[in-house]
Write a structure and sequence with these properties.
By secondary structure, this protein is α/β, with parallel strands linked by helices. The protein is built from ten helices and 20 strands. Helix 1 packs across helix 2.
Length: about 375
């Protein structure tokens, strides 16, 4: 058994950044932490568990909807791992019923594969008016087909997040999904604050990419945004500088009724670790000045990594690094019942990352083998 100690300048322990801690590595795994001085290798930077991303449509040149298979999920996970994200929910968006069936079959086969922690079902049970880049012809009310798929996944203990609009699902359906253990997330909705509150009362516990594709907040109509913030439920946010103005993220973090409710998502498409163009619903989407643009000139997902999101949270939103890492690791892990992903102890070296002073991200495994290639660049 090989054993040695490393002594990082700082360590993110899932809650905060601490110093004066050493880690014992045995056969590629962290087996102990010590606050006593150890004779080990100094590691400059901040050691952290790798990022967790609950909304990943694609990567490595492939899109889950285009090929909903276990191999596609593996390709997507590997592409994001290059940039420090070690756990993802592959995300299947609005499409034909058989696409969702195939994605469910794929994730059942993929559970236990590196980086795959469940499935995010985003649509098709959403608002046509707030569908974004989702294909209108596939949008439909919640049905027994989707309910049965979620039930099958949860019976196999597969973590599931399902994004829906209150207008497209009954309170009873939301309650049933929540009772199954699915994380019901409100998104792509034109609903009123009252509708959102009713859905939260029925069991919804999250909001999907806050601000994007949802009814806005006004003085006499709080809409989905106001209702989600006021209810104190979790919500994802895309921090790419295109989907949401940084000042609005600042406002949301201050306005949330409970602390540690916001989490970072990439909403990444096939271009992360892949070519700068792909097809969605048979139509081209291309990368232009950091934005993914569809044929109508609208945003179609994001071209950003969690590593870049963390950098932007600190540099442009003004969060502390502790808060940014909770948003990119701890909060999403806990939301999906995967708290072990926010811990360092008993983790493989390949699941740990190191952030330098400028917040560029490298893998701990790469550091230990002498490779210092940065993981941040998405292109």
């Amino acid at each position: 058994m090989t054993e040695h100690w490393i002594c990082p300048d700082r360590l993110f322990d899932g809650k905060q950044i601490i110093s004066g801690v050493s880690l014992r590595l045995q056969d590629g795994k962290v087996t102990a932490l010590s606050t006593d001085a150890q004779d080990g290798n100094r590691l400059p930077g901040c050691l952290s568990p790798g990022f967790v991303d609950l909304q990943v449509n694609g990567g490595g040149g492939v899109l889950l909807n285009a090929a909903p298979t276990r191999a596609t999920m593996a390709t997507i996970a590997a592409a994001h791992r290059q940039f420090g994200t070690v756990a993802i929910l592959p995300t299947v968006i609005t499409d034909q019923p058989e696409v969702l069936e195939q994605a469910a079959d794929a994730v059942l086969a993929a559970m236990g594969d590196t980086g795959i922690i469940g499935l995010h079902i985003e649509g098709p049970h959403i608002s046509v008016e707030r569908r974004g880049t989702h294909e209108a012809s596939f949008v439909r009310p919640m049905d027994d087909h989707t309910m049965a798929i979620v039930a099958r996944l949860r019976a196999a203990d597969v973590p599931v997040m399902i994004t829906l609009a209150p207008e497209a699902a009954t309170v009873a359906q939301v309650a049933a999904l929540s009772a199954m253990g699915a994380v019901v997330s409100i998104g792509h909705t034109n609903g009123t604050a009252e509708q959102i509150e009713e859905t939260i009362a029925a069991g919804a516990s999250c909001g999907t990419h806050l601000f994007n594709a949802m009814s806005t907040m006004q003085s006499r109509a709080p809409g989905a945004i106001g209702a989600i913030l006021n209810a104190g439920v979790h919500f994802g946010v895309i921090c790419d500088g295109h989907h949401v103005d940084y000042r609005m993220i600042q406002l949301a973090l201050r306005a949330a009724a409970k602390p540690d409710r916001a989490f970072l998502v990439s909403d990444a498409m096939a271009t992360i670790g892949g070519a700068d163009q792909f097809d969605l619903y048979g139509r081209a989407v291309h990368l232009e000045d950091g934005r993914l643009i569809n044929a109508e000139g609208n945003l179609a997902g994001a071209h950003v990594t969690q590593a870049e999101g963390v950098q932007r949270l600190v540099a442009h939103v003004g969060t502390s690094l502790d808060e940014a890492l909770r948003m990119a690791v701890t909060i999403p892990a806990n939301l999906m019942g995967q708290s072990q992903l926010s811990e360092v102890i008993n983790r493989e070296v390949s699941d740990l990352i190191v952030l330098s002073d400028d917040l560029s991200t490298t893998s701990l495994a790469g550091r230990l083998t002498g490779s210092r290639g940065a993981l941040n660049a998405a292109e």
